[in-house]
Amino acid sequence: MTRALRSLARALGLPAVLFAVWWLVSAGSKSFYLPPLRAILDAFGPTWSSRWASDVLPSIGRLLIGYAGAVIAGVALGVPLGGRPRLRAALEPALELFRAIPPPALVPVFMLLFGIGTPMKLLVIVSGAVWPVLLNTIEGVRAVDEVLSDTCQSYGITGLTRLRVLVLRGASPQIVTGMRQALSIAIILMVISEMFASSSGLGYAIVDFQRAFSIPQMWSGILLLGALGVVLSLGFGVFEARALRWYHGQRSAHREDG
Amino acid sequence: MTRVRHAGRRRAGRSTPSLPRIGLGVLGIAGVAAVFELIPRAGLVSPRFLPPTSAMLEALGREAATAAFWRALLDTARGWALGLAIAVAAGAVAGVVIGSRRGLRAATASTIEFLRPIPSVALIPVAMLLYGAQLRSTLLLVVYASFWPVLLQVIDGVADVDPVARDTALSYRLSRWVTIRHLILPTALPYLMTGVRLSAAVALILAITAELVIGAPGLGHEIEVARVSSAVPLLYALIFVVGLLGVAVNVGFRALERRVLAWHPSVRREAAA
Amino acid sequence: MTQLLEVRRLRKIYEGHGRIVEAIGDLSFACAPGELVCIVGPSGAGKTTLLKCVAGLIAPTAGEVVLGGARVAGPPPGMAVVFQEYGRSLFPWLTVWRNVALPLEHHGVPRGELRRLVDDALAEVGLADVHTAYPWQLSGGMQQRVAIARAIAYQPKILLMDEPFAAVDAQTRADLEDLTLRVWRRHGITLLFVTHDIDEAVYMGQRVLILSASPTRVIEDLAIDLAAERDQLATRSSPRFAELRSRVYEHIQRAKRAGAGEVRP
């Protein structure tokens, strides 16, 4: 019991201290741009209660749909590329180029081609978040164990079963790594696509506050955005622990033998 | 006369040899360029929105002759390099300090896990307020985003120091500086290199973002100007240049990492950044 | 009596990096149904290449492998393989039970029969009580037994084993050898057993095929006329065992010396 309490205390300790310091240091702040923490927290309720359904939820929805699209596209393209070395060699320089383009730089192009509605925002998210998934899927598929592959071949396990049971499960640790990186990128792109030319969404709201010099509201939006990032990260951690339970188990077993 | 050797375990297929690989790569690039040439010409997408590759290259050529282009390129490079340097220095120092004490590692773990996922773009409005369309806005974003990969990697690297070696250093009462120089730095170096490589890519993305969204000087700003003035081929040309910069950064830092680690026996895997 | 497996003038050449490697020169032998044939040879003699050709995982350069009258052009049905690296041949993300069941599931065996086959196979190798465990939670010997159970459940006509016990300790190896003999006798399958361990080959086999160094051929096809009931203690200390063992050892030593100085024109 005390052990759990101690680790909880350790986890919350420094953040609580920092929070308190922030509160105290900013309490008497007269600075326009950096208001007291108290003012920011006070602004939370009124600002977001009305905007929750109209801005925040749609943003989160777009984020999740775009993210899902990126994962599906990345895996769907990564599996065939991972298994065909010659195709990979042919596409590698082109992929190197496309993936090196900072995703925000593509926002103007997407605005040009697709306007400024939801499809554009989804495409922006997919265009950036697909790369870590794609590249990690390729690596994961390449690294499928040769002995395991021979075993499947000799037992006549081919086609869809082989894809499901050997390739995808085998590459899953690598794919999940890519998914984790893709999540951070998706959040960033969601916000950028909304900061640009948009009339709704969390990113738009924050920029709108900034333009209108509603500073405490702006900061409350930033805090909300940060909280969103943290919650999604924690959620992903739970997903990863479940999905890769076998992998973590195997690695700790090897470490013990090693 | 060919000498017969023993056969090892081999599969029927083998990896593609290198010369054909380069050839295939060139073919791939040429194919992509051809596709982007033909799509607008065939009318699948209006050339107003997607100019053919030739128009894009032409715009690139014209732009490269102007001084403004190179100024913007230099501005981007400056923001990237300066921000990266600050982030690497801060991350390395903080990483060494935190990583070398178990107590500090445990105490800061939750804070780092809390701050890390906060998207750097959340600072965009702050930067706009505080610094406006200046280099300092770029630096704020770049430093914030590039700090974390380096910090995390260095913490892992310092924590990876062999405890036996560390105890040996302690028992010989080696000075702190000697310990750092001869024990901690060599162990942490591969991790640091990986962190720098990851940060370099992130720094470029954030530099372009700051220029694009806030209007700080640089290629990102030029891209936005091109969009607003409907100079579409130029828009694509600039994006292509930024892509080339990205490739240069990726390839360059991968090579740097390999060179520095050539003597290092172990190969580290990058943590999910 | 028609042979179940025939290998006719098998030849395998690897080309790569400007070097030509003739792994298998001219190899021919045959197995009758239900036979237990062991294959030994000096290291690097292409034993694994031979096994992979028979298993249809590699295509030979010349010659052919015929199983049950049909030419082998890919992994044939009715054949199961047990590899040396047990850790890598089992799916770490599946439980022991699902590992054994997977080939049957893929081939559409009805649920009831599948369960019976898997349960019986696991019981036969003595792993009935760990079927919910994951392979990496088990010891090396137990993992190899899972691989054997998987082969048994598959009900093959012929079982290939590629140095299966090379990576386990001596005591476990003895247990696994006896388990293999029991399984072979109970199911009447044909067993092709590749090993570098001479004692193991003589102990287990009805015949021992001795391979030369590369380019590999069959030097000798030795009939093992020991008692059918093998016992680790009694059989291995019998005089006939020692004679046969020395015979094999001599052949292999000669093969190693002959291969060492060979240069291909």
Describe the structure.
The complex is a heterotrimer of chains A (258), B (273) and C (265). Chain A contains 10 helices and no strands. Chain A is mainly α and 258 residues long. Chain A starts with a helix and ends with a helix. Chain B contains 10 helices and no strands. In chain B, helix 2 crosses helix 10 and helix 3 packs across helix 9. The radius of gyration of chain B is 24 Å and the shape is elongated. The N terminus and C terminus of chain B are likely disordered. With 265 residues, chain C is of the alpha/beta class. Chain C is built from 9 helices and 10 strands. Chain C has a 6-stranded mixed β-sheet, sandwiched between helices. Chain C has a 4-stranded antiparallel β-sheet with strand order 2-1-4-5, with helices on one face. In chain C, helix 3 crosses helix 4 and helix 7 crosses helix 9. The N and C termini of chain C lie far apart (41 Å). The chains are: A mainly alpha (258), B mainly alpha (273), C alpha/beta (265).
Question: How would you describe this structure in keywords?
Answer:
heterotrimer, B: 273 residues, mainly alpha, 10 helices, 0% strand, elongated, disordered C terminus, C: 265 residues, alpha/beta, six-stranded mixed beta sheet, four-stranded antiparallel beta sheet, 10 strands, 24% strand, globular
